[in-house]
Design goal:
Elements (H helix, E strand, L loop, with lengths): L3 E6 L8 E5 L8 E6 L2 E10 L9 E2 L2 E2 L7 H12 L3 H4 L2
Parallel strand pairs: 2-5
Antiparallel strand pairs: 1-2, 1-4, 3-4, 3-6
Amino acid sequence: MNFFYFQIAVPIPIREVFTYKSSQMLPKGARVQISFGSKTLIGIVIEQLKSKPTYEVKEVSKIFENKKTRLISLYKKLTKHYVLKVPFCTN
């Protein structure tokens, strides 16, 4: 099975995005459900990776209706202006 790989922002106090895979192409801003440790979280697709990572990646559990696409550009502007990482802007 072919997978697409994505950087996903999650609402936790860590200043990084995390890599997940999906058998479906996901647009920027798509809301997805992911397994994060022992928790299930809702994340936002930030971007698609151009190549497969060299490490093991978990799969997206569920894809929700896409309503936040326009907010991604706002999140990126906020990160530059306030020196934040994208996950902090999505809370």
